[in-house]
């Protein structure tokens, strides 16, 4: 395969998008661990009151 500047830029773009989404996933998992438990308990309590 002929490695042109456009091909290298495309590969770099795809790799940057993958790294970005992995970073977002890590952020969400860490945030869910720190805040998810209390938020889930609140939603359960409010759903019981509504029912």
UniProtKB/TrEMBL annotation:
Sequence ranges of Basic residues compositional bias: 42-51
Keyword Membrane among record annotations: yes
Keywords: Membrane, Transmembrane, Transmembrane helix
InterPro entries the UniProt entry points to: Cyt_ox_CcoM-like
Spans through the membrane: 6-29
Region (Disordered): 32-51
Name recorded for this polypeptide: DUF3149 domain-containing protein
